């Protein structure tokens, strides 16, 4: 029986906690958050849970709350990763997080490296630290390795996320607007020929065709972990991949790009009528937050949806038996309406939270046997197979399309 603490019970952490409560191999779930009300609210809905208020800036508070735990799930922003890792090592617990960056004190690549560099500490204690678990990164990494293993060599990996869940009520992003705008305004990282290259925001716009879509969609480069971890691990687990890209599209991106071109996503102070303002602060403050509670989501659905469409595609290109080969892995998950009907949550919480929980489930059922610190593309064949089979039980399904040049 496993005892698990979830540090940060926001949209994704609360989903993980609720699913853990259903696991027979889990004896207790500790719901920990700086917001005591949020922790109490989640724990109050569960049978095996208790709530703890803590400040994750203080490692000792995490250590105290995590005593006796087998696993610490870090549902906080990446700035807290080092503290939660420190606590896991001191307690002797395995570790899981959802993202490596961005962080306030390092560039994106260095932030990822800093996490991976802790592998010897976890390995020495016989522990596993699995980083970047969720949908993207997370599920995307599992699918990438699945595709790469079917090739003899890998030239290129492209990950596409197109989000067109658009309601009549103005909700441009179904996660934190501040995080969304910050990601949009950041310089994306592209891995190419052994180097990480920073490009301009909204770089390389292209119309891309997707299966099931009536017309091509506009996609641009977007800052994300996958090009970083996959570039760092190119030769180790991805057969020497030469190029990795993460691309994003949808109405939210179009809105963000317009604001960016106007300078409204700038962090630089601007004087307006004798007052200093930060444009990004104003935009983040005025953008409606994503609905969090069931009554809020219900109100959005009752007002009506404009569209409930999207694409989650991992494309792996390389060679098989001397011939060019391309493998498309389309992942499908419930949309907003179906997610609310199934679990009373948004599609974003359902897909990312459930995808993250499946990694947690692997921990509590002793499926992960490798020790150290690594992202999901390092999981072994049987571990990835378990993950994908469990995902299907949650209606997170994958179609595989293989195209091979005959001559």
TrEMBL record:
InterPro entries: NAD(P)-bd_dom_sf, Sacchrp_dh-like_C, Sacchrp_dh_NADP-bd. Residues 136-380 form the Saccharopine dehydrogenase-like C-terminal domain. SUPFAM superfamilies: NAD(P)-binding Rossmann-fold domains. Residues 4-130 form the Saccharopine dehydrogenase NADP binding domain. This is Saccharopine dehydrogenase NADP-binding domain-containing protein. It comes from Candidatus Thalassospirochaeta sargassi.
